[in-house]
Amino acid sequence: MNGQSKNIKAIIYSQLVTLLACTLAAITLIALSKEWTFYNAGHVFIISYSYGLCVHLSIGIWNGYFSDRSLLFRYSIPSAIGFIIGTLMQMLILHYLYGSKSSDELLSWLDQGLLYSILANAVIIFYFYNQQQKVNIQEELKVTQLQQAAKEKELLHSQLRLLQSQIEPHFLFNTLANLKALIALEPTRATVLLDNLTALLRQSLKQSQKETITLKDELKFCESYIAIQQTRLEDRISVNVNVSANVNQQQPFLPLLLQPIVENAILHGIEPASGRCALTIDVQKTEANVLEITIEDDGVGLGNSSHKGHGVGLKNVRTRLRSFYGDDSQLSIMGNSMGGVSVLLNIPEKALNLVS
Question: Please, what is the average pLDDT of the chain?
């Protein structure tokens, strides 16, 4: 409905421009000529409008059939056709109104009519050509923006694939080493570790085949990751995952959006700590329909970690968060009252629904 309204407004606007051009051309000719009387001036306007409307309609109809051709083809040919039709109409009008006049007088009026019709047509053609140039520039800009967006999206997917390729070997080598040590000493723990590793690799494979997964899958992936880290750190991590009842865990969600945050919490907050630490993942939906995910620990706190990272993981999370969910999404990192670090993700539900 809005598109039709815009088209109608555009048609009316172009017609008004055509009439204005014809009016200005007629006024100019009358002002420059001393032979026109007040009575004849009215006929000048009539003839001028007949020229303008003929050219206007010719361009409109012609472009309806040849909209994919060049601008020169789309405007020069219909303008010439409209000009010829307008001249024939002018001859008929002059003959009808001034049939009693001599042929020389009629030809003189026709010559002058041709002059202002050329002026009016030039204005009309210039207007249409200029409008089309603007449309072409806008279309080219839109194509460029779409291409740029596609490149950015592909870059983000490449970053995701890089993250996935980094996670699998990292866990595989470290976990297999722990598994080898536990098989002989603690077979039960080795079995649990093997089950968690199997679940992690299965989920990782599932993520690598899709651009989006579900929130439930992402949480499961994080839980499998944490379970493996618990075995590695000899259960120095207690985990609490809270998901509010009003949260739809089947909604689309970006893979590996939470895992780098959980990994940072363990490597930089919990592992350097001397005692047992807690890791909490809290997921809820606010009254403003915003998905709010909090990941916090009571580890050593900001800036106190012995691990020296480069911030690439969180930077990628922030970039992917903004690119896929828009500027309304947020990632906040702050110290908490427990002495550790809290990371807060806010994603509007409407943005989550747009990603599939």
Answer: 76
Tokens read off for 127:
């207007």
Q: What is the pLDDT of residue 297?
A: 93
**Contact (Cβ atoms closer than 8 angstroms) between residue 215 and residue 248:** yes
Beta bridge partners of 281: 241, 295
Q: How many CB atoms lie within 10 A of CB 36?
A: 18
Find where tokens 């809270």 sit.
242
Measured between alpha carbons, how far is 144 from 132 in angstroms, rounded to an integer? 18
SS3 content of the chain, % helix, strand, coil (to 5): 70, 10, 20
Cβ pair 117, 71 in contact under 8 A: no
Structure tokens at 93: 């009008």
Question: Residue 124: phi, psi to the nearest 5?
Answer: -65, -45
pTM of the model: 0.53
At residue 130's C-alpha, the angle toward residues 128 and 134, to 5°, is 115
Looking at residue 355, what is its pLDDT?
Answer: 57
Distance from C-alpha of 83 to C-alpha of 90, rounded to nearest angstrom = 10
